[in-house]
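hiii so um. not sure if this is the right channel but i have a protein structure encoded as tokens and i wanna go backwards to a sequence. like what aa goes where. can anyone help
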């Protein structure tokens, strides 16, 4: 397996630019895959510099319906107008984030949507490529998409994202979040964009795709940057207990969580930057 980070929040590579977002190019099991496409067209510029030919991509996966993971797909369409793009059926919701906490607790709704920012023209151009998911999807016997990441009955979504149902503004349950899972001889590779439904639930969703298989590598935005110290420590403890070969905390994980994972796991935790390439 080979995967390259076209977009990440940080970079250390000359000529490669970073932005708040995520995009990963993956070669595995005879398939070429694009997982997310960043906030802008920058993923394509970085791909060209990294000699990644996006026109050869077999299919793409949208982790969830936020702009920092989907902004580049109209450009992807112009480069590759035929590759299927697997996107959850709820991902096109018009959603909003907040500043300062949840609404009702001092938070203020953002003026601009944090959801997918495609224009009507771009959506029409993309329409023939979009394959809408809900439950699990099998691409091949070794490559699957989780569909909606299942959560326990007592799970409460983070009250930082909202969408309208009619005229009512309600908490976004992030049901449009999904993971890509690839089985290799050494175990499962799980790719999660932001883990808004909890990175532990994302891990379990990945394992559910291949019962009995161990997780070898987790590549995930863990969305722990705003978590309390207690919650962050609890999640890190459970992630470490999985005893994976490699963890790559990316994007929205937060610098505190990344540093703690690195301190706990040493070389088993890789701090990723845009332009990085991994051959495993």
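sure thing!! here u go:
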């Amino acid at each position: 397996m080979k995967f390259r980070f076209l977009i990440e929040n940080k970079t250390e590579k000359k000529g490669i630019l970073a932005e708040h977002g995520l995009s990963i190019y993956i070669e595995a099991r005879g398939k070429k895959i694009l997982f997310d496409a960043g906030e802008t067209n920058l993923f394509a510029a970085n791909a060209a510099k990294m000699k990644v030919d996006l026109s050869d991509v077999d299919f793409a996966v949208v982790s969830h319906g936020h702009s920092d993971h989907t902004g580049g797909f109209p450009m992807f369409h112009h480069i590759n107008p035929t590759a299927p793009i697997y996107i959850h059926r709820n991902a096109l919701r018009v959603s909003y984030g907040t500043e300062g906490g949840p609404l009702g607790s001092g938070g203020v709704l953002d003026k601009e949507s944090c959801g997918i920012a495609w224009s009507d023209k771009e959506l029409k151009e993309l329409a023939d490529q979009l394959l809408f998911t809900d439950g699990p999807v099998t691409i091949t016997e070794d490559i699957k998409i989780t569909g909606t990441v299942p959560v326990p009955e007592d799970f409460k979504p983070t009250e930082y994202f909202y969408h309208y149902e009619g005229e009512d503004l309600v908490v976004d349950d992030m049901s449009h979040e999904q993971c890509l899972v690839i089985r290799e001889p050494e175990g499962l590779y799980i790719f999660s964009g932001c883990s808004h439904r909890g990175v532990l639930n994302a891990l379990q969703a990945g394992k559910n795709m291949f019962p009995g298989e161990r997780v070898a590598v987790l590549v995930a935005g863990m969305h722990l940057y705003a978590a309390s110290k207690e919650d962050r420590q609890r999640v890190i403890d459970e992630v470490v207990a999985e005893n994976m070969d490699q963890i790559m905390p990316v994007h929205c994980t937060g610098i505190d969580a990344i540093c703690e994972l690195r301190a706990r796991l040493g070389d088993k935790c890789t701090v990723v930057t845009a332009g990085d390439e991994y051959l495993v």
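oh and The domain at 2-279 is CATH 3.60.15.10 (Metallo-beta-lactamase; Chain A).
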